Amino acid sequence: MKLSAEQLGGQLKKRLASVYFLSGDEPLQLAEAADAVRLAARNAGYGSREVFYADTGFDWSLLQEAADSFSLFGEKRILDLRLPAKPDKTAGAALVRYAERPAEDAVLIVSSPKIAGAEQKSRWYQAIDRIGIVVQVWPLEGEQLLRWLDRRLNARGLLADRSGIRILAARIEGNLLAAAQEIEKLRILYGEGKIDDDQIVKAVADSARYDVFDLAEETLRGHTAKACRVLAGLKAEGIAPAVALWALTRDIRLIGNIMALLAQGTPTESALAKCQVWDKRKPTVLQALQRLNRDGVQRSLLLSAKADRVIKGMETGEPWEALLSVCISLAAPPGARVMASVG
After folding, report:
1. Keywords assigned by UniProt (predicted)?
2. What is the CATH number of domain 212-331?
C-alpha cells in the first residue's frame, strides 16, 4: 500500500505491517519516517533490532536467514535494512523472496534512495507493495513546506504567524535539515511560546555576516584561524553563546558517532548515511575524520560540557573564551599551541 509521509503516522497507530519500504532523496523526512516506524514497533513489543547495510558485496542470504530464524527468547524483532542505491537484480530477488515468506516475529524496515517510476513496476516493488507499506518522500515546496514548518515549530513548543513562517521558508530554501536546525536555534534563543517576525528575522537573517553553521564548518575543516575569526564575529553580532555551543557540540557528537561506527567495522558510506550526513557535508566530515582521533573528540566534548556550565552560570568563566577553547581543541592539530582571542 502506498502512503505519503504525512499518512504514515496514522497508519502506525492502527497496526504494524510486516514490511515498510521507505525511499526518497530528502534525508530528514526519510530518517524521521524510519524513526517513527521503529518507535511504533518498540511500543508494540518489538524489543530487539538487527541492522543490515547492503553495501557492495552484501550477502543477501543473511536477510532470509534472519527472516527464518526465531529469537531464542521469543522476542519480536526489528530488521533494519539500509540500501545505498536502488536494488539491483540480486537485491530485488532477495526482496521478492522475503515478501513471499516474511518473518512472523519481525517487522522489516527498508530505507532506500528515491525509486523512479519505472522501477516501481518491478517485481520486487510490487511484491512489497502487496504485503507492506511503501512511502516515498519528496522535497517540499510552497504550501506543503509552510505546513511542515508550522508543524515542526509546534512540535518544538513554538508558535509563529504565517508571515514568520514565510520568512523561515525563504531562509532555508527547501532544505529541511537546515529548517530543523534553524527551529532548534529559535527554541534555544527564545524558549517555548509565541515568536514574532522580528525575532525570526534576527535569528535567521541572511544579512548576518557570520553564521553558527560557518563556525562549525570551519572548525571541522581544521581552519583554526578562520574559526576563531567567525567566533569573534558571532560575539560582535550579539549571537547567544548557547547557539554557537549547540552548533559545535552537534558536530562533535556527529564525528564521535561516526568514529564509533567505523570502529565497529561499519563501512564509511554506511556510517555517514546512518548519521545522516548529506552529500554537501561529506568532504568536510571525511576531512575531520582523517584529522581527528577519538581521544581528541572526547576532549572536545568535555570542553563543550564545561562551556555549557559556564554559559549557564554553573561554573566561573567567560562564555566566549570557553567557546574558543572548544573551537581550538577541535580545529587545531594535536599538540599545537594557538594564541587566539575573541576580543
Report:
1. DNA replication, DNA-directed DNA polymerase, Nucleotidyltransferase, Transferase
2. 1.20.272.10
Q: Which residue has the higher pLDDT, 67 or 20?
A: 20
C-alpha cell at 10: 496514522
Question: Is 268 strand, coil or helix?
Answer: helix
Which pTM does this prediction carry? 0.62
Residue 342 or residue 277, greater confidence: 277
pLDDT category, 337, cuts 50, 70, 90?
A: very low
Whether 106 and 79 have beta carbons less than 8 Å apart is answered as yes
AA letter at 334: P
Q: Which of 215, 201, 224, 203 is nearest to 244 (CA)?
A: 215
For residue 158, report the phi and psi dihedrals to the nearest 5 degrees: -115, 145
Q: How confident is the model at residue 225 (pLDDT cuts 50, 70, 90)?
A: confident
CB 319 within 8 A of CB 241: yes
Strands (DSSP E) contained in the chain are 2-3, 19-23, 46-53, 76-82, 106-112, 133-136, 158-160, 193-195
**What single-letter DSSP state applies at residue 275?**
T
Q: Which of 167, 319, 199 has its CA nearest to residue 248? A: 319
How would residue 124 be classed by pLDDT, with cut points 50, 70 and 90? Answer: very high
Question: In the chain, which residues fall in CATH 1.10.8.60?
Answer: 142-204
Local structure of 15: helix, strand or coil: coil
- For 142-204, the fitting CATH number among 1.10.10.10, 1.10.510.10, 1.10.8.60, 1.20.1090.10 is 1.10.8.60
Q: CATH 3.40.50.300 in the chain: give the residue spans.
A: 2-136
Residues 6+ apart with CB under 8 A from 296: 329, 330, 334
pLDDT in tens, 140-169: 888 999 999 999 999 999 999 998 899 888
Residues 247-263: tens digit of each pLDDT: 899 999 999 999 999 99
Within 8 A by CB and 6+ apart from 133, the residues are 1, 3, 8, 11, 17, 19, 20, 21
CATH of domain 2-136: 3.40.50.300
Helix (H) or strand (E) holding 251: helix 241-263
